[in-house]
Amino acid sequence: MTNTHSIELRVRYAETDRMGVVYYANYLVWCEVGRVEFLRALGHSYAALEHQGTALAVAEATIRYVAPARFDDLVRITTTLTGVRSRAVTFDYLISHAESGVRLATAHTSLVSIDSGGRLSAIPPAFRSALAAVL
Amino acid sequence: MTNTHSIELRVRYAETDRMGVVYYANYLVWCEVGRVEFLRALGHSYAALEHQGTALAVAEATIRYVAPARFDDLVRITTTLTGVRSRAVTFDYLISHAESGVRLATAHTSLVSIDSGGRLSAIPPAFRSALAAVL
Amino acid sequence: MTNTHSIELRVRYAETDRMGVVYYANYLVWCEVGRVEFLRALGHSYAALEHQGTALAVAEATIRYVAPARFDDLVRITTTLTGVRSRAVTFDYLISHAESGVRLATAHTSLVSIDSGGRLSAIPPAFRSALAAVL
Amino acid sequence: MTNTHSIELRVRYAETDRMGVVYYANYLVWCEVGRVEFLRALGHSYAALEHQGTALAVAEATIRYVAPARFDDLVRITTTLTGVRSRAVTFDYLISHAESGVRLATAHTSLVSIDSGGRLSAIPPAFRSALAAVL
What we know:
The structure is a homotetramer. By secondary structure, the first copy, chain A, is of the alpha+beta class.
């Protein structure tokens, strides 16, 4: 396992808008799917992390839209862990057309670790170590 | 207050799909908005009901699509309470074009009352009385 | 190929609501995904059908919610073609928990064939034959 | 009319996630609603603009999440036009809790003008003049 993990997903009809392309907010949904699968590949279920009382809340997101994704396209989400601190973690994302390789969007998110009451809290040590090990 | 309450909402771009019309699942979102505003008009906040430990979970939904809603249309959601029992409540919905009155869809939902553990539970008496009073 | 086709999908965080379960409208999104993959398995891309000028618009949907799906669950969507006529097609859906087999929801949709202007139109013969062949 | 316009909207149940707060991608939907209403206040319907063959596609979006919005909160979206060029327009957004004034998020989007074929095209003169007049 490196700090990069890729998944593919098929564009759903529900994700398109009347412009005939994927609605811009939905790329952030894909980033979240990429992030969850990155963590699973690392051996950590995000669902289990939340059940243990820690959530990762997005503090900032930036996305650049390069070319549109369309219904039924197979898109690849490449998620790269770019930083880990005591209470924060950052990821970059590359969204591309799986067959042609054409770049569709790039994104970046910063997440902070919070407890079940919504307060900033330290990332659990085992989880933080697993992240740091692939950086 | 009768057993019927209407609201209007503006169709969002996000709610459309590549067919150029509102995606079919989104009408159920509007029914939920209509339901919440029906309860507010009755003097009961659904958010408060949940904070007190009771949720209304949809057990069944039926929707008939008559004519498409489009981006920027002003649509009217008319919500009608059709039944109240100890642990269930039913609503009908008429979704129409606010300006022309054209019927866009009709829907029906059955909801059951559950506690915070997801178990069937009695609708709180004050809430049930308020519903029954307008039937 | 029979008249039934199954796919699996992983519940996204975006699909949940504050009740901690999948929001009720999102099951209709999954039905659409199941329907599109049913057609692909049959050798017909729904995207291609639309490019050729025919769309299938949902005229009616009914869904019964039996048990909640939760974040990160692997769910199975089993789509069954139940009828084909000159301008209409019907499907049933069973949504179940992929690992336990627990039934989460059942649904039914009726779709009508429309042209690019939104008028009722005959289902293209090759497409209708392919559907009829597995009924 | 200045370069700033505010609207209020009620948080929908559908917009929340299992963390009990509004799902992060949905703030971009609200930005779009704010943008459309800004244009309407300026005397220009975005729907009409699209019918005339020009669309505004988001090229970049940045959002900072400060505090969570919750179900049934009344939120205010304040949209500010920050720049207009021949083929691009930029907006800033402030999302706040309507009653308390608490800042929930800030965002920025850059949009480019495209024709119905998806190619970069000049913003129609009347529309550009209306935008420039309030800057």
